Amino acid sequence: MPIRRFGGHKSLASLSPKLSYSYTKMNISKSGYRVFSANSSTASTELAKRITERLGVELGKSVVFQEANRETKVDVKESVRGQDIFIIQTIPRDVNTAIMELLIMAYALKTSCAKNIIGVIPYFPYSKQCKMRKRGSIVCKLLASMLAKAGLTHIITMDLHQKEVQGFFTFPVDNLRASPFLIQYIQEEIPDYRNAVIVAKSPSSAKRAQSYAERLRLGLAVLHGEAHHSESDMADGRQSPPLSRTTTGHTGLELPSPRHQIPFPGIELPIMMAKEKPPISVVGDVGGRIAIIIDDIIDDVEDFVAAAEILKERGAYKIYIMATHGLLSAEAPRLIEESAIDEVVVTNTVPHEIQKLQCPKIKTVDVSMILAEAIRRIHNGESMAYLFRNIAVDD
Q1: Alpha helices (H) along the chain
Q2: Which residues, 6 or more positions from 176, have their beta carbon under 8 angstroms from its beta carbon?
Q3: 151 and which of 66, 110, 123, 237 could share a cystine (Cβ 3.0–4.6 Å)?
Q4: Among candidates 359, 351, 388, which has minimal Cα distance to 49?
């Protein structure tokens, strides 16, 4: 007979009377699970508390703090041997400290003989650095390797900046979606949302916006122009040899300058014309409507503020911004407060309570429900398909 679990403990009523007490006690301790928070910031543990309340378990006893020399120290206060351990790590402004806290806690649990170590990282840091730029590196792949080396065996995250990032990992990654919660907010909290139009801030984000528009049965508009820069438009440093060069025959008496050397003398590669974006324009009708801008991350808000001004000029009478991860760095709260934006709606994947105090326009949607359900299903070995029902690749 299968043994049912709730809150990390077996139901004793389902055990056969023939089993000895010692055998029962041993298996209860071996098959349980614990939920820890790897963050030393009090504000960043709020999501962990919400998740454990929904699961009906207590937050694991541990201490994470910074030494006087800024070294991170982790002290796990209870046994984790043979158990499934879930580490909840929200990423505050001090990204690098949060990463070290997660790595050190994972390694501490690994050396304490935890059975499985699952990282719950709603916003995955460095996800924007997932492509080669100039002479840099793909930092997201480096971080994936570090997490595997530290001992993580699984990751739960939400709305990765690029879904292809999952290929960097050598273990399973569950990329949950916040779109059902944001769509529900639109339907319940935006008056007359039927008169709205979904707006993509740039052509690169059109697929996500189109998915929202189709689910809400609304129109779609796309902003395009010089005020918005897509990652694919940035120079990647591969103009080699340089565009201006002089080709001369090589006699073997002297070597040409390495900077101007080409593979075969006399062969010229085609020169690509530089891109020049047109003046910013709106593709679609927003006149007399509510404009809802959709994106996955809102960090530096200059582009969003510029987009709101253009939409106002085109006749939109209310402007909302919906995003999964509200990083809201630097002067973002002040710029939002002084802009034409009426409301910014983000989830609680990233702590932003200070920003909300500075700007009343910022609203929060709680996604702890889906994260708690993902933890429960992974521990019990249940299918995750229910959490992805009706979810498309573009969501």
Answers
A1: 21-30, 46-55, 95-111, 139-150, 179-189, 206-216, 302-313, 332-337, 353-358, 368-380
A2: 156, 157, 158, 159, 367, 370, 371, 374, 387
A3: 110
A4: 351
Q: Tell me the two tokens of residue 21.
A: 């007490």
Q: How far apart are CA 117 and CA 326, in angstroms?
A: 27
Mind listing the pLDDT tens digit for each residue in 290-327?
999 999 999 989 999 999 999 999 999 999 999 999 99
Please answer whether residues 233 and 275 qualify as being in contact, where contact means their C-beta atoms are separated by less than 8 angstroms: yes
Instruction: Give the span between the Cα atoms of 224 and 387, in whole angstroms.
Output: 34
What are the beta bridge partners of residue 176? 158
Q: Rounded CA gap, 166 and 188, in Å?
A: 33
**How does strand 33-37 pair with strand 62-66?**
unpaired
Whole-angstrom CA distances from 258 to 121, 136, 235, 244, 270 are: 46, 22, 22, 14, 20
Which residues on neighbouring strands pair with residue 119, listed in sequence order?
87, 155
Distance of CA 40 to the CA centre of its chain: 20
Question: Whole-prediction pTM value?
Answer: 0.81
pLDDT > 90: percent of the chain: 66
SS3 339: coil
- Our separate counts of H helices and E strands in the chain read 10, 16
Tokens of 73: 């120290």
339 Cβ contact list (under 8 Å, min separation 6):
301, 304, 305, 308, 309
Residue 35 pairs in a beta bridge with: 59, 86
CA distance 394 to 175: 12
Q: Which of 319, 296, 299, 317 is nearest to 307 (CA)?
A: 319
| DSSP result, 246-310 | ------SSSPPPGGG--SSTT--PPPPPPP-PPSPEEES--TTSEEEEEEEEE-S-HHHHHHHHH
Give the whole-angstrom CA distance, residue 81 versus residue 83.
6
Paired strand residues for 292 = 198, 320
| pLDDT tens sequence across 44-71 | 899 999 999 999 999 999 999 999 999 9
Residue with tokens 């565009």: 243
What Cα–Cα distance (Å) separates residue 269 from each residue in 6, 53, 197, 320?
Answer: 66, 63, 45, 47
